[in-house]
Amino acid sequence: MQRYSQQIDKRYNQHYTVNKKPYFTVTCFSLVAIIILLIIAIAVTRHDYKKSQTLFADQSSQTIVSNGETPVSSQNQEEEPVSSEPEIIEITEGYSVLNFTGQVDDWRLKMANRLNIIEDYTPNVTAIGSQYCQYGDSYEIDERVYDDLIDMITAAENDGVDLIAVSAYRSFSSQQRLYERKVQTYLDQGYSRKKAEDIAGTIVAVPGTSDHNLGLAVDFNYLEQHYENTEELVWLKENAEKYGFVMRYPKDKENYTGVIYEPWHYRYVGKEHAKVMNEKNMCLEEYVKYLSKNS
């Protein structure tokens, strides 16, 4: 009886083992297929990402790629990690109308850009007020602009819109520190000094070329382009002119200003100038050149 029982167990085990093999084979095949699909998905994702990055770089190189009017820390632009090999970045400086070097005799229209570098200009500034600044900071602005700025912030508040300053006046020396820190980042990655400076200048404004160095500009609320339709930035676009402010770097003026579209960056030019600039659809570079030709 015991021998018979052992024979039954042996046959059962053989049967189980035989029937088990197909399941094992199918399972292994499925795992391999899943791994292959994952590898393909990762490869496709990386390809699409690189393609999108290349497209962005190509689009940016058609104008002067400059995000330098925004402080590095405010735009989550932390220092890039040092890599063993330099990242390849192509810089194309294709100035179009940005070829006018000169100023007009009106402090409200003073230009700071790559062709009009401001070094020895120190405005008399006053604190905006921590209640109007991000995190209770104490940003400053040219004291001649203060009243119109506060009137604008108050008017927005009456309309249920909170305008918060996230950056304003920056001295030449503070801009120099920001810029040199970014240059050092690329020097550490193996770039030559000139190339490092060229690349750094597309991210942080070269000292003396920043609108913030004049004490006439304020960045409001958001520092990314996709916030352009928020109630704060829409309100500014519709009402800033009444208080002497204009969007300094409009979307369709990159070749004129040398700076990418910044819907958060507003510059004081005075009420009468703001009105004419908007009527003529001119950025500051165009307007100053227009006034110079007609003076």
Brief digest:
The chain contains eight helices and six strands, in the order αββαβααβαβαβαα.
Give an account of the 3D structure.
The protein has 295 residues and is of the alpha+beta class. It has a single domain, classed as Muramoyl-pentapeptide Carboxypeptidase, domain 2 (2-Layer Sandwich), CATH 3.30.1380. The chain is 44% helix and 8% strand. It has helices at 2-61, 146-158, 172-188, 193-200, 231-239, 254-257, 271-279, 284-293; strands at 125-127, 140-142, 165-167, 217-220, 245-249, 262-268. It has a four-stranded antiparallel sheet. The protein has a two-stranded antiparallel sheet with strand order 1-2. Helix 3 (172-188) packs across helix 4 (193-200). The longest helix is centred in the N-terminal third of the chain and has 60 residues, at 2-61. Residues 47-97 have low confidence and may be disordered.
Sheet/helix structural class: alpha+beta
- Based on CA atoms alone, the radius of gyration comes out at 30 Å
Give the CA-CA distance, first to last residue: 121 Å
CATH topology: Muramoyl-pentapeptide Carboxypeptidase, domain 2
Quaternary structure of the protein: single chain
Q: Which CATH-level-2 architecture?
A: 2-Layer Sandwich
Biggest sheet, spatial arrangement of strands: 3-4-6-5
Count, helices:
8
What helical percentage do the residues reach? 40-55%
Shape: globular
Compute the average pLDDT: 77
Strand content: 5-15%
User: Can you tell me the residue ranges where pLDDT is under 50 for at least 5 consecutive residues?
Assistant: 47-97
Q: How would a crystallographer describe the biggest sheet?
A: 4 strands, antiparallel
Number of strands: 6
Q: Return the string of H and E elements.
A: HEEHEHHEHEHEHH
